[in-house]
Amino acid sequence: MAGRADDVDLIQNGPKWLYKRYNNSKEMIQMENSTKSSGLLLGTLIGGAIGAASAFLLAPKSGAKLREDIANKYHVINDRMQQMATNVGDKTQDIANSVSEQSTKLTDKVSEIRGNVTDKAIDVKDKFTEKTNEVKNNVVNAWQDSKAEVKREADSHRQPFSS
Length: 163
Fold this sequence. Notes:
The chain is mostly helical. The chain has one domain. It is built from three helices and no strands. The two termini are 61 Å apart.
């Protein structure tokens, strides 16, 4: 027969498949966000490089002027890319912090609800046990009272033996 400890353990630990599914979902969302961010960055880099190369190669300039323009554009593009990488890193960090904060809040709320449900279940079980014992005691007392009353009735109707 399962005891109170088993009941509490079942309520507190809950179904394991639900926690596994929740953790797998979190991992999939993190992988999806990571893939989207890296794809955007890669596309931006490739597009910028192709555009810059096309502009330089199609412009009619002398060799020295072209090299100077290429160097200047390289520095501008490099600065922009570093700025974009910093922005992407900052946004990624903000998103990660937000997800972490929301996960923590959700975990805390689930723990709070689980604790409340556990407490309520234990209270219901205790009240049920208390009421069951009360009914049992009432039945036993009523039976003993009835038994004593029947015995008194029988004794009052008993006639002494005459010899």
